[in-house]
Amino acid sequence: MKRIKYSILVIIGLLMISVTGCKDQVLNKKPTQSFTEQDIWNDIDLVKKFVWNNYNALGGWGINASGGLDLPASVTDNAYILFDYGAWATNTGNLSPDNMGTWGNRWQDDYSYIRNTNIFFNRIDEVEGNDAVKKRLKGEMKFIRAWCYADLVNLFGGVPVIEKPFELNDDFKVKRKSYQESVNWIVKELDAAKDMVPKTVSSNEWGRVTKGAVLALKSRVLLIAASKLHDPGTEPSGSLYDYDKSSKWQDASDAAKAVIDLNQYSLVDVTNWKEYQQMFLHNNSEIIFAKPHHPQYRQRYSNIDNVNTPNGYHGWSGNCPIQNLVDDFQMKDGKSIDESPMYNPSPDSVYENREMRFYADIVYQGATYRGRKTEFYLPGGQDSQDGPEYWNYARTGYTMRKHMDESIDFKQVNPTTPKIFFRLAEIYLNYAEAQFHLGNEGVAREYVNKIRNRVKLPDISSSGADLLNDIRHERRIELCFEGYHRFNDLRRWMIAEDRLNIDAKGIAWKKVDDQGKLSLNGDLTYEFITAQERNFKKRMYYLPIPRSEIEKTDLKQNWGYK
To answer: Confidence class of residue 23 from pLDDT cuts 50, 70 and 90?
Structure first.
């Protein structure tokens, strides 16, 4: 938390607004550079822009706020990041207070936006303007502040909860609240915000906070709080990490059901994998809250297509799906590759008869992508290290298809793919998991099967531990490459020690002759390879607080870190 006078932060924020370019410009105003603190809090239109600029707190595609290079999937058993933009410190177990890797600015960024929201609440009542407009802006800022605290609490455990802006002479020796106190505060804020924002927005306001977004965040926060990671009996334990409400699973269930009961969202009906893929490219009935992207706004590392398309198409092959994920996609009969008679591991058939989400999410050897079949093989494959921009070839033999808009030339046109924060499928799975822990297995199966039936998979009929595993499997597949779901799930279920100590595997395709030597005219074959050795240390269930923050504030460091 930097000791910067808040008027400076306000002016910087407005300068950022002028760069990003909101559509409804304010006329007859002084140049942005000359705005004073008093200008801002005397003009409701400038306050609106201040609020909208703080939506940047919600983040973008990547872990690092600067862009979408390292997707959160790249620090899980779903993907491998080709170049080290900071994720490797997590993957190799080298995360420390002095080496935060891609998480380096997370604490600071969240508290910077929290400070902006506190400034807003300190000044908004003195601003002249329509009361309904001000109420809505308050609801949006409550949501943004709750989002930042939810992020901090999820990553670090209990944190200092600050509700007023600091001045230069204020005491910075704040203390961390307990995890449970922090969660209770977030829930209280969201309960207030839900009645301050509209239930729906017009198309030209898509991306602004709605009641559904507020309730969805509450659902996610309470599901994480109810999970094993926060049981008092697990290690690490103590007030900074524990959540022991006896009603925790009922609360998580009620929060998810509140979103469902809005009767405002519905699963998109699809008949094939292409329709499922398209679901992530445009607004639809399933999306609860998302960040839209305008084609005139270009940020180099936010071009999700450029970062993740194979090198043969002049992409960067950035966040590569790994074999560990590929093998978890079921066959069309709803069985695993180990159980289904439909699975054939031969080179010509290894990707046949998979469920539709596999084809919508993964670019694999021989897949038709952007008008041609991919060539991940050596020698001569266009998408291998023999292809153009060889340094960008996919080390795992796969690239992402989910979120990719194949209808555009991403080198010429900026993608408009929305960054989805919440959609109904997540809420169904939240509800299913909570209902399972409440002993209502029939309801849990019902909501898992809604997700499976949408992609033409048969019902599950499992119970007990097998049902819980089916719920977890469905979350991995349905929500893969979407935000922090997998990262959060592995930690809150406390299975990261098992899953993230398994090396990231890939597949190497080759054409070989009768002697087993590489040949352009040879037969296609493959072998499994290790793309990255992985190491997850138990202390990494929580991130370390950066050393610089500890030195400034004397906060207690997280368990396991020095």
So the answer is: very low
Q: Sorting pLDDT into bands at 50, 70 and 90, what band is 27?
A: very low
Helices (H) and strands (E) in the chain, counts: 19, 11
pTM for this model (two decimals): 0.93
Structural domain range at position 545? 78-102+299-415+503-562
Q: For residue 97, tell me if it sits in a domain.
A: yes
What is the per-residue pLDDT across 339-351, written as a single tens digit (0 to 9) for each? 999 999 999 999 9
Phi, psi of 265 (to 5 degrees): -125, 150
Asked if 433 and 473 count as a contact pair (C-beta separation under 8 A), the reply is no
We report the CATH number of the domain holding residue 377 as 1.25.40.390
Helix (H) or strand (E) holding 531: strand 523-532
Is 130 inside a domain boundary? no
Q: Yes or no: say if 454 and 267 are a contact pair by the CB < 8 Å rule.
A: yes
Mean pLDDT of the chain: 92
- Amino acid identity at 513: D
Q: Is 184 exposed, middle or buried (0-12, 13-18, 19+ CB in 10 A)?
A: middle
What are the pLDDT digits (tens) for 527-548? Answer: 999 999 999 999 999 999 999 9
Q: How many domains does the chain have?
A: 1
Q: 404 lies in a domain?
A: yes
- C-alpha span between 185 and 423 (Å, rounded): 24
In a domain, 376, yes or no: yes
